[in-house]
Design a protein that fits this description.
The protein is mainly beta and 613 residues long. It has 3 helices and 29 strands. The longest helix has 23 residues, at 45-67.
């Protein structure tokens, strides 16, 4: 998850030529999960599949960068003709480094000997898994800031569809309901936003920081999933991972090399008792049999400690034969360790297209008291292909950098993450849209969603501008916490410590006037800060609480709003810039029936295009 070299990914040469750029190798690590009741799926199954897939992607990056050619020490130059009155004279100048953008697509097909990663025999199954992904990334080189010539940033978005099919039943019985067609419960779409920043310390050592945001999108309804897997919502955990890495790469000969990677991360998860620290150490041996065929055996060790888990709910505990033995908190002071051995065989068909085979063996041990989690053995065998297209340099040539003065319009699209709508109130009567009753300490959690903005503006100087922005944030509802009794059109629900699931939407439409402060000068890379004030329309609609329908009513609010943002633009032509931005939006004291959440905060990460006139 750390470094994808942002420049010179063009040719493949032996190891002795690539010491100038290093790649990280993502250690395999597992999210081990609490068991649910019999005939249901263990929690966090999907996270396990995601992490395995990310490890496979990183091994592919490691192989590609290991084969690339080291750039020449001399700066490339080009000759440019000048005016005819100077005769045949030509000016020789350095060819500028250009931002690197890529489009990447890949698929993998794997047979898993333990699709649920569970020790309990009633959940030990085999299945075929298919993962189809598309990724767009941007990795600009930074020449305009002294000291950053060996600094490699990258930002991108990846969408992956996970599909399970041809699943076999458990090796032992205890499947009276015949509900092991888990594809319906586990097929999902994962959206991943990633940020990476790596610094080359020496020819063989690189360190880096990264942030990954994972959001899940279901391809079926809660009722469809419940009929197969029970209450398995924690199979899909929205997570944010912040990581530090150190990567050492050493070539022995023209065809052999080793890589050693250490990675420490802190993973924020929902529910919070899945939040944990992860430490991983991975060693990889790379052998180039020919210029198109390579073999990459690897070994990894992972150590994880779950934090803030003393209040995790007790979960049904089964022994290896599926017999209920009681309940236990499988997360309190939980320590997991896992060993993974693997082998990859890779075929580089063309510079853009590659395919391969992989075989992995994993064994995990845990202090968890829950038999379904922490302790398991898994075998994986699969095949994969990937295609990587680098946009041509000419698409990013800027004849003359400008100060970007005058009018412009920016269009941004990305993901929005809304903080919980919560209050310390005790509500009676109309407590939420379409819901009456009594509710103490209400809190509504909101799923990740999308945000779209259009922002016309005007730059007065090369460092100061103003813009008027309008946009929309659309999010689905996730969960309601609190204490009390709720009356809905379809019946009555009692809410307690565990809360109730919610179905509905939360919409925000801000209109803001903002000042924008940019890094001055004619550099292509321009960081900026923005602050804005205005108003926002918002709408909260709840259509279902747990399994009970509401009247589908919604509540509207018009509120003062503020925004704080930061980001950077990269000039790619005389009139067009790429834009990457983070925005914090706050709605001041909106009211939704009885709920008054104070300042409703939303965080957004967006990518866009800025057009100057």
């Amino acid at each position: 998850m750390e470094l994808v070299d942002s420049v010179h990914l063009q040719s493949k040469q032996p190891f002795k030529t690539r010491s100038g750029h290093l790649a990280s190798f993502l250690a395999l690590f597992l999210i081990c999960q609490p068991a649910l009741f019999a005939q249901t799926l263990p929690s966090a199954v999907s996270q396990q599949a995601v992490i395995d897939a990310q490890a496979q992607q990183d091994r592919e990056r490691q192989r590609k960068v290991a084969l690339q050619e080291k750039p020449d020490d001399k700066t490339p130059v080009e000759a440019t003709a000048v005016s005819e009155d100077l005769g045949s004279l030509q000016l020789v100048r350095e060819i500028p480094d250009l931002p690197f953008a890529r489009l990447h697509m890949d698929q993998s097909y794997s047979w898993l000997s333990n699709a649920n990663y569970a020790k309990n025999s009633q959940n030990v199954v085999a299945a075929w898994q298919a993962i189809s992904s598309i990724e767009g990334a941007w990795a600009p080189t930074i020449q305009t800031m002294p000291g950053y010539d060996k600094f490699f940033p990258e930002v991108g978005v990846r969408a992956s569809f996970f599909n399970y099919f041809s699943q076999e039943e458990p090796s032992q019985t205890n499947n009276n309901a015949g509900t092991y067609d888990i594809g319906l419960a586990q097929d999902f779409l994962l959206a991943n936003i990633f940020f990476r920043a790596n610094k080359q310390i020496s020819d063989e050592l690189t360190v880096g920081l990264s942030v990954d945001v994972n959001g899940y999108f279901f391809l079926n309804t809660p009722d469809e999933r419940n009929s197969v897997a029970g209450d398995a919502e924690t199979n899909f955990l929205n997570e944010i991972t912040a990581a530090y890495s150190a990567n050492y790469f050493h070539p022995f000969t023209d065809t052999q090399a080793v890589s050693l990677s250490w990675r420490a991360s802190y993973v924020f998860s929902n529910p919070s008792y899945f939040t944990r620290t992860d430490n991983n150490l991975t060693g990889t041996y790379i052998l180039n049999c020919t210029d198109k065929i390579s073999i990459t055996p690897f070994a990894s060790y992972r150590l994880a400690y779950y934090t803030d888990a003393s209040n995790a709910p007790a979960t049904a505990d089964f022994n290896d034969q599926g017999t209920l033995t009681g309940t236990a908190n499988g997360f309190y002071r939980r320590l997991d360790q896992q060993y993974t051995l693997g082998l990859g065989l890779n075929f580089q068909l063309t510079p853009e297209l590659s395919t391969g085979l992989n075989f992995n063996y994993s064994k995990s041990d845990s202090t968890s008291q829950i038999a379904e989690t922490g302790d398991f053995t898994n075998l994986t065998a699969g095949a994969n292909w990937s295609m990587n297209y680098k946009f041509s340099d000419k698409e990013f040539v800027v004849e003359q950098n400008s100060e970007c003065l005058g009018p412009y319009t920016r269009v941004d699209l990305g993901f929005g993450f809304v903080n919980n709508l919560e209050s310390s109130q005790t509500l009676t009567g109309s407590v939420l849209p379409g819901i009456t009753g009594s509710l103490a300490n209400p809190s509504i959690s909101v799923n990740p969603g999308v945000r779209f903005d259009v922002s016309p503006g005007f730059n007065f100087t090369d460092w100061l501008g103003v813009e008027l922005s309008g946009g929309i944030l659309y999010n689905g509802l996730d969960h309601l916490n609190g204490n009390g009794t709720l009356t809905l059109d379809g019946g009555t629900e009692v809410i307690g410590g565990g809360g109730l699931s919610l179905t509905g939407t939360y919409i925000q439409v801000p209109v803001l006037l903002s000042s924008v402060f940019r890094w001055p000068g004619q550099a292509r890379w321009k960081p900026y800060l923005s602050t804005g004030f205005g108003f926002a329309y918002s709408q909260l609609q709840i259509t279902q609480v747990d399994n009970t329908q509401t009247s589908d009513q919604f509540e509207e609010a018009y509120s003062p709003a503020f925004s704080v943002g930061s980001g950077f633009i990269w000039q790619v032509s005389d009139a067009v810039d790429f834009d990457v931005a983070y925005k914090l939006l706050g709605l001041i004291n909106p009211t939704y029936s009885g709920l008054q959440p104070g300042v409703a905060l939303s965080n957004s990460v967006q990518f866009g295009i800025n057009v100057r006139f």
